[in-house]
Structure formats: structure tokens, C-alpha cells
Design brief:
alpha+beta, two-stranded parallel sheet, 6 helices
Length: 151
């Protein structure tokens, strides 16, 4: 619906396997999720005990909205294993059965929990900010609060 910032807002979030937010991107409500995958994935840096941070995860779990050829090609290019279920209307090609890791996909609830933790902040849930830049700043502030809770 119509809000102060426009017709709606989405934030695209990447977390680690423990629910710690790594990167966030804000777009208009009508923008499809799969178009922002590259932008949000370019922001992450996974700390390592030794050496520089890793820029790419080993696996990426997403919902059926991320099941398009462009996303799968991008993931294959960077050596990331997709954990994305097949759509109901998707035809299966004979001889190319894809292995789907259901146990890893069940861990996708971690990101849903992270979104609900971020929306505990009233400014995030209701979006009082008119500008997307200010809303992104409030999201990053909520992410910092999440980091402090974990510590």
C-alpha cells in the first residue's frame, strides 16, 4: 500500500547461518527480488580467522522467487551452490535431475527470524523515513543493534 516513502518498500537481506545480518539493500516494492541478488551479494564480507574476508558463501538458500536462469548462472559463475526449490510450473528435463537439499532449505527460517528481529524496531516496521537512504541507515542501525545483542 501507499506509505510515506512511496507505494511500498522491500529490503533484501543476506545473513549467515547463525542469523547475523551481513548485507542489506532497499528497493521499491514492485522490484523483483532476483534483480537485487548481485547488488546485495557484492556487499558481504565473511570474516575468517586468518587472511582477508571471504566474499562469497558456499551455499545460498532462497525462495522460489530466486529460481531463474540468470540467478543460477551467476551462482554457478562464483561457485555457490544454490538451495532453491523448483517451481510447480517448471518442467523437469529428462536426465538432468537436480539434487535439492531439503535439510539446508529448512534452515532458511533463520533469515525469516532475522527479519522479524529487525522489525522489532518500530522505525523499520512502519517506515517513518521518507527517503530510502534514511530508511537504509535505520536498517543498518538495527543491524548494529543485532550485532550488539549477539555479543
Amino acid at each position: 500500500g501507499r506509505s510515506r516513502g512511496g507505494y511500498g518498500t522491500k529490503f533484501h537481506l543476506v545473513t549467515d547461518s547463525n542469523g547475523i545480518p551481513l548485507a542489506v539493500e532497499v528497493t521499491a516494492g514492485q522490484v523483483h527480488e532476483s534483480t537485487q541478488l548481485e547488488a546485495v551479494m557484492d556487499q558481504i564480507a565473511i570474516p575468517q580467522p586468518l587472511g582477508r574476508p571471504r566474499k562469497r558463501p558456499k551455499r545460498l538458500a532462497g525462495d522460489k522467487g530466486y529460481r531463474c536462469q540468470r540467478v543460477r548462472d551467476w551462482l554457478w559463475k562464483y561457485g555457490i551452490k544454490p538451495v532453491i526449490p523448483a517451481k510447480k510450473n517448471e518442467t523437469k528435463k529428462p536426465g538432468r535431475e537436480e539434487q535439492f537439499d531439503e535439510l539446508a532449505y529448512k534452515q532458511r527460517s533463520i533469515i525469516e527470524n532475522c527479519v522479524s528481529w529487525l522489525k522489532e524496531c518500530r522505525r523499520i516496521a512502519t517506515r517513518f523515513e521518507k527517503l530510502a537512504l534514511n530508511y537504509l541507515a535505520m536498517l543498518k542501525l538495527a543491524m548494529m543493534e543485532r550485532y550488539l545483542r549477539v555479543l
